[in-house]
């Protein structure tokens, strides 16, 4: 298995993307530590992983609480012997107001939460990865700097901010054998609610691809497991494009 003897921490594991990542890691042999704020969702996912023969443990904490995140990372590293993979897919508090109408305070809060959460969790993992001279930190979402779309408010700005952090982390951690990679997505229709109002958006995601299909949650887990494995050891400071051609060169 690709991730045998590896330890993965997934922040936001109770959500659809986080669950997909955890399943992908667990299927490839990783011991998964599932972190979030909704105990029921975390426990259900952990039971599912264990029923399939995987390893999973849960922790309820706020990813903005630096002390709690650090304590959890220390516990994981001590119990498992290493902290090999870390990914934070906690969603930002998106504000879809056009920037010209955007309340400054709302903008600041949204961007601050996205950046702070990523900084806190990445710092916690990086401390251990630098010591062990290995590790993979994954980001999710990405940015296509050649395309823009009006009406996204803080969403794309937040992802661009996180991407800037990813580039800086990669150059600072590379010398210690730590890889930092983003999964670039054009959208995952399965994550949308099954209501008529969002059907046009789901179709738009598919229509924007070259393959005429969008990535699935299973695709997300499979690619993430590969990128986190030693078979992808040459990949860092880059985005791995899982958009089915919606984003291109």
TrEMBL record:
<keyword id="KW-0560">Oxidoreductase</keyword>
<dbReference type="GO" id="GO:0016491">
    <property type="term" value="F:oxidoreductase activity"/>
</dbReference>
<dbReference type="InterPro" id="IPR036291">
    <property type="entry name" value="NAD(P)-bd_dom_sf"/>
</dbReference>
<dbReference type="InterPro" id="IPR002347">
    <property type="entry name" value="SDR_fam"/>
</dbReference>
<comment type="similarity">
    <text>Belongs to the short-chain dehydrogenases/reductases (SDR) family.</text>
</comment>
<dbReference type="Pfam" id="PF13561">
    <property type="entry name" value="adh_short_C2"/>
</dbReference>
<protein>
    <submittedName>
        <fullName>NAD(P)-dependent dehydrogenase (Short-subunit alcohol dehydrogenase family)</fullName>
    </submittedName>
</protein>
């Amino acid at each position: 298995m690709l991730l045998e003897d590896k330890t993965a921490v997934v922040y936001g594991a109770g959500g659809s993307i986080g669950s997909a990542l955890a399943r992908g890691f667990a299927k490839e042999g990783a011991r998964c530590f599932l972190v979030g704020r909704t105990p029921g969702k975390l426990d259900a996912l952990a039971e599912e992983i264990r029923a399939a023969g995987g390893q999973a443990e849960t922790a309820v904490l706020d990813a903005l609480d630096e002390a709690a995140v650090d304590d959890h990372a220390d516990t994981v590293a001590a119990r498992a012997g290493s902290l090999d993979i870390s990914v934070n897919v906690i969603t930002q508090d998106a504000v879809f107001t056009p920037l010209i109408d955007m309340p400054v305070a709302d903008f600041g809060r949204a961007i601050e939460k996205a950046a702070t959460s990523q900084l806190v969790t990445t710092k916690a993992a990086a401390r251990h990865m630098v010591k062990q001279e290995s590790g993979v930190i994954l980001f999710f979402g990405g940015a296509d700097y050649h395309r823009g779309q009006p009406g996204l408010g803080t969403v794309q700005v937040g992802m661009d901010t996180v991407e800037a952090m990813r580039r800086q982390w990669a150059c600072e951690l590379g010398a210690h054998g730590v890889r930092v990679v983003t999964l670039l997505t054009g959208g995952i229709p399965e994550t949308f609610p099954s209501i008529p109002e969002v059907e046009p958006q789901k179709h738009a995601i598919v229509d924007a691809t070259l393959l005429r299909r969008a990535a699935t949650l299973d695709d997300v887990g499979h690619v993430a497991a590969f990128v986190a494995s030693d078979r992808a050891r040459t990949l860092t400071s880059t985005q791995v494009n899982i958009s089915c051609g919606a984003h291109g060169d």
